[in-house]
Predict the 3D structure of the following.
Amino acid sequence: MTFSRRRILQAAGAAAALGALPSLSFAQKPESSKVHIAVGGKALVYYLPLTIAEQLGYFKDEGLDVTISDFAGGSKALQAVVGGSADVVSGAFEHTLHMQSKGQAYRAFVLQGRAPMIGFGVSRKNMADYKGPADLKGKKIGVTAPGSSTNMLVNFFLAQNGLKASDVAIIGVGAGAGAVTALRSGQIDAISNTDPVISMLEEGGELQTIADTRTMKDTLQIFGGNMPAGSLYAPQAWLKANPNTAQALANAIVRADKWIQKAGVDEVAKTVPASYLLGEPEVYKAAVRKSLDGLSPDGMIPPDGAATALKALAAYIPDFPADKIDPDKVWTNEFAERANQKYPNG
């Protein structure tokens, strides 16, 4: 996808009208070469572009020295930025809306996943007789961390099927081997997680998936519109103060997005750290293959994405002030558009 200079200037003008970001050029150096990114579950396929950008040196190519801190879930990563120990979150898009509801301005500026890529399923051991959503009442459901997007999917699913969040017990199990062990050992009855965790349990015949957002088709069916997921987002104040640094980050992520789509699963498995494979490289490859459709091909946030995410939040958070939220203020494509112009072929 290519973008004309006129279109980029129009986008910058629109962003400026929102009180957003100054215009900049590719030649400008980052305001700060050191950037600290907080992520909730770095090894998950959900955040694959972040790892690829790091492993292939794309951040360094943009003049950045990036430190990535990994947390148990997206809500924990967000807390690191709120607390000032990190600059940018690699996390779920909908957190920007949640923060606005609390009076804090955050904005997503480049996309890693265009679908939530979350699978929700029940243990074939603990819930062998599962017939439908009503059977979840009173059960322990594992999520990466309470308040994270994996938790959101559970609550959204419950609400769609006439259940309340209080009808189940939500347990934080992380995003890696510990999550797999939690289900296998019977500590939890169901799990909402991303790949490779879900694929590992599916391939082993241990999980009956009941909701799946790893493909665009299923995502559109479940949420009724585009539901952007993994993204880089930051406080609006940080973006205003560091537009060149944000541009450099977007450039690296867009390159990674495009590389993943071209390289394929075998190259991805060779490029990520060996620990990501959890000792089962073929299962990891299957997980990436299942999620390719949900990964962003170009870093661009769909125009209807914020509205869809807002509806989802309103459906699962009691008394969420949806009518007081301005979805246009939580995202911008101006950085991703420039990145696509700089790297039209990845």
About this structure: The radius of gyration is 19 Å. The CA atoms of residues 134 and 250 lie 43 Å apart.
